[in-house]
Amino acid sequence: MTEERPARPSDVARAALEAARAAAASRPQPTRRRIAGPRRRWTPAGPSADDPQPLGRLVDSLVTDQDWTAHTRVGSVFGRWDALVGADIAAHCRPKSLSEGELLVEAESTAWATQLRYMAPSILGRLRAGVGGDVVTRLRVVGPTAPSWKKGPRSVRGRGPRDTYG
After folding, report:
1. What is the pLDDT along the chain (166 residues), one digit of tens a residue?
2. DSSP for the chain?
3. Which residues contact 144 (CB under 8 A, 6 or more apart)?
4. What's the Cα-to-Cα distance from 69 to each of 77, 120, 131, 135, 138, rounded to whole Å?
5. Residue 84 contacts residue 72 (beta carbons within 8 Å)
6. CA 137, CA 131: separation in Å to the nearest integer?
């Protein structure tokens, strides 16, 4: 009398692997064939539209296709302010808004505001050369503004607390 011992997991796996190998050997082997279709065209010498493009060229074509040129030129006034007007002028003033060709610039002091008003024609010339002639047509310079006392729900009518600065 022979006792059957239980099958071990490795024996079950080995038997399954042998059965899979036998089934694979009985199937016919596929033959490799060439798929009919258009032949591969090689690009000519030099770059073509299919080649990777520099990022700047892709962004320029996107801006042109989407007609964003006016928006990018307005944005370049604010983004490149230091380079357009020079570091010495840019250290003392900042552009605040641009609407209908008028650029509002806020100076750090009233003296700088006066100086920038005298320099307005040369600043406009620099902006025309750097961005384009029709983006900024007028320059309005304002000095620093005083704090407003008209804040909150309980503001007082009249001149306000003028005598606190002594």
Report:
1. 556 676 777 788 888 889 888 888 888 877 777 666 667 667 667 777 777 888 888 888 888 888 888 888 888 899 999 999 999 999 999 999 998 889 999 999 999 999 999 999 999 999 999 888 788 999 999 998 876 666 677 766 766 666 555 4
2. --PPPPPPHHHHHHHHHHHHHHHHHHSPPPPP-PPPSPPPPPPPSS--TTS---HHHHHHHHHHHHT-HHHHHHHHHHHTHHHHH-HHHHTTEEEEEEETTEEEEEESSHHHHHHHHHTHHHHHHHHHHHT-TTT--EEEEE-PPPPP---SS-PPSSS-SGGGG-
3. 106, 107, 108, 109, 110
4. 13, 25, 11, 11, 20
5. no
6. 11
Contacts of 143 (CB under 8 A, 6+ apart): 106, 107, 109, 110, 112, 113
pTM of the entire structure?
A: 0.56
